[in-house]
Amino acid sequence: MKFLLNDTLIEDNSVASDFSALRYLREKCGLTGTKEGCGSGDCGACTLLVGRLVDGALQYQTINSCITPVQSLEACHVVSVEHLSQQASSLHPAQQAMVDCHGSQCGFCTPGIVLSLTSLFEDKQGLKQDIDRQSVCDAISGNLCRCTGYRPIIEAGLAMGDLPYGALLAQNADVKQQLSEFAEPSSITGNYSQPQNLAQFIQARTASPEATLVAGATDLMLENTQAYRDFDNLIDVSQIAEMKAITQQGDTLSIGAAVTYSELESFCQDQYEPIHLLLSRIASRQIRNRGTLGGNVANGSPIADMPPLLLALDADIQLLKTDGTTRIVNINEFYLGYKSTQLMADEVIIDFQIALSKLAQFQRYYKVSKRMEDDISSVMLAVRFEIEDDKLIDARLAFGGMAATPIRAVNAEQALKGHTIGDEQALLNALQAVASELTPLSDVRASSAYRIDMARNLIRKAWLEAAGHSVVTFSGHQVPEDVLAVPALTGKGGQDHA
Fold first, then answer.
1. Neighbours of 231 (CB within 10 A)
2. With contact defined as beta carbons under 8 Å apart, do 11 and 75 qualify?
3. What secondary structure does DSSP assign to 11-27, as a single string?
4. If DSSP codes are grouped into helix, strand and coil, which group holds residue 238?
5. Which residues, 6+ apart, have CB-to-CB distance to 199 below 8 Å?
6. Kind plus residue range of the DSSP H or E element containing 383
7. Which residues are CB-contacts of 35 (< 8 A; sequence separation ≥ 6)?
8. Beta-carbon contacts of residue 161 (< 8 Å; ≥ 6 apart)
9. In whole angstroms, what is the distance from residue 160 CA to residue 151 CA?
């Protein structure tokens, strides 16, 4: 393992495969500015900045170090809060603004917040863009603070852009030079392998067939930090070139399984706005910088947010076996039961293939959760309508959080097909079908009755939007009752929860 920690070159092959970056900084390096709060990637007290060379340019992102294996940071520049003022002999604008705006009280969460704001500052200054409230809230979406109420922290984020500063991390020529001199990581390195292409992956998997696969580690490392499970051998697939690509091949869009949420979010921003909006609601910026599409799907969780999207888009999944052969499984056949999938022990997901024609059709993705940011869905609905001459030729309604697996409401889809988009009776038939074909559980996030009511109202919302109505979601304005009123199907009234 070799990486640059602040100004110090780290070379260490003695750590366990699942030794976290947080523990390494605190226990091995004495850098205690980075704090441990939750140990599960939720609070952001352990936030670090990590820079990689991408096409000759330094790009920095925030991560949760408590659930990041330190060996995954091979050939990176790792920046802790101690480094910020040292490199310019004065406080970084993110630090100075926090002081000026009284953004810190007990101080425990402050280092993580400062690094999240630093990441935003560096990005916006490098692009010569202004910092607005939305970008500040996004940057600190994974940082919890029990003291300040966030107002002074947001004010600090807005104020830091006006402070003078010239020592941007991405412009550090010395760091660029050192990272460029690092040798390419070996496909087989002790107890932690980080292959750079599929050929190296097959080599590593053949040598250690018992090894556990890891990508962003945003879920896997919870087994280590929360359940105290040790992983003897890890094969990191997050840097495999073929699995990092987003490419268009003929009439198909291929998205690599190691593409992170942030990378997909950036790709979709101008081309696929509904997908971009959903991705901005998933977890926090730190998690989106590490978590991958393949990991979200392979995990088999019924509350994952990406499987319903892929179900709505009828995606194909390409799987690779250790012997080099591949097979295609449609997303509709991939899930077998709770936490059970078609993925075999010697297989890995390479990519997801989606027809461009389906991406061009009407899509909506709705995530309902108790918090806007960094929360798990109570109900997730992915919708795709194929509309020709105001008639619904095809309809896809895929849910998360409603069954033991991500699931389609097939009967409701059939009730809509073949009818005009303005046929309210067809809609009511579909809503009745949902109430009878889905039997969600009740848990701490929502009751079964709430989930059914929410599912019906979200379907109606999509139906209204497809018909050209403007449905207000996050403002204080009331939507006209004659537009949103739904006859009671459960005896609890037709209140719209969307």
1. 19
2. no
3. E---S-TT-BHHHIIII
4. coil
5. none
6. strand 379-388
7. 45, 46, 108, 109, 111, 112
8. 93, 121, 124, 125, 130, 131
9. 14
Task: Quote the tokens at residue 117.
Answer: 């704001």
Residue found by looking up tokens 């987003």 in the block:
246
C-alpha dihedral sign at 15, 6, 170, 62: positive
Question: What pLDDT sits at residue 493?
Answer: 32
CB 421 within 8 A of CB 435: no
pLDDT in tens, 200-257: 999 999 999 999 999 999 999 999 999 999 999 999 999 999 999 999 989 999 999 9
Indicate the pairing of strand 234-236 with strand 212-214: parallel
Instruction: Give phi and psi for 363, each to the nearest 5.
Output: -135, 145
Q: Supply the pLDDT for residue 182.
A: 84
> CA-CA distance, 105 to 92, in Å (whole number)?
19
How is 265-297 classified by DSSP, letter by letter? HHHHHHH-HHHHHHHTTSS-HHHHHH-BHHHHH
**Using one digit for the tens of pLDDT, what is the confidence trace for 446-490?**
999 999 999 999 999 999 999 988 887 643 333 443 444 333 333
In this prediction, residue 148 carries a pLDDT of 85
Alpha helices in 363-447 (DSSP H): 410-416, 424-437
Pairwise CA distance, residues 167 & 95, whole Å: 14
Is the CB of residue 169 less than 8 Å from the CB of residue 51? yes
For residue 281, what pLDDT is reported? 92
Q: How many CB atoms lie within 10 A of CB 191?
A: 17
Q: Quote the tokens at residue 85.
A: 């003022």
Query: Which residues of the chain carry a pLDDT beneath 70?
Result: 87-89, 183-189, 473-498
- Strand 77-79 versus strand 2-5 pairing type: parallel
Q: What does the CA dihedral 233, 237, 241, 247 come to, rounded to 10 degrees?
A: 170
Q: Determine the Cα–Cα distance for residues 263 and 61; give it in Å rounded to an integer.
A: 11
Q: Could you identify the residue written with the tokens 């009776």? A: 425
How far lies 309's CA from each of 19, 46, 367, 478, in Å?
Answer: 34, 31, 11, 29
Q: ∠489-492-498 over CA atoms, to 5°?
A: 80
**CA atoms of 412 and 44, how far apart (whole Å):** 41
Reduced to 3 DSSP states, what percent helix, strand and coil does the chain have, rounded to the nearest 5?
35, 20, 40
CA-nearest of 409, 360, 68, 323 to 219 is 68
Q: What is the pTM of this model?
A: 0.90
- Report yes or no: 356 and 249 within 8 Å, Cβ to Cβ: no
